[in-house]
Fold:
Amino acid sequence: TTTTTTVAPVKDTIPLAEEDINPGLKLMGALDDFNACLATEGYSWIGFPNADLGANDPANQPGYLEALQLCNSRTGISSAFQDFQTSRTDLAPDVVRQENEDFIDLADCLRTKGWDIGELRPDENGLLSPGDRFSSADGDIDTGEIRDCISEIGLERAGEE
Structure:
């Protein structure tokens, strides 16, 4: 019997210290954890509860509401979202410019990986946003690919210095 071992080439990456992780990336990690928690509870994200849709709407069902509360408390997604929103306000023009350049580079990298990203447009703070289209090839948000792109961009910039 012959055994063959195949080793994938190691990709150079720059690990990010927790305090250096962009609040948007932290939000994506919390989103992954939140969705995994919902799946463990037997649900997938179907939207926020909405009383206007009535008690029979799936987003208003008691089991789904309990899963939302449980998974929010386990993952801290609400706090991550608030931190993300806070990080995007009252920025100096040079910070907005750098954030936008970083996001353009990230969007370009993700598009090479098959992501569907909407036209980048400024929000009320002047920061670019992809609108309602921001998903990997399978329709989800693959935070691993986002981290890979951030690392690749960091390596490219380090090589330029």
Remarks:
- The chain has a mean pLDDT of 86.
- Residues 93-112 form the longest helix (20 residues).
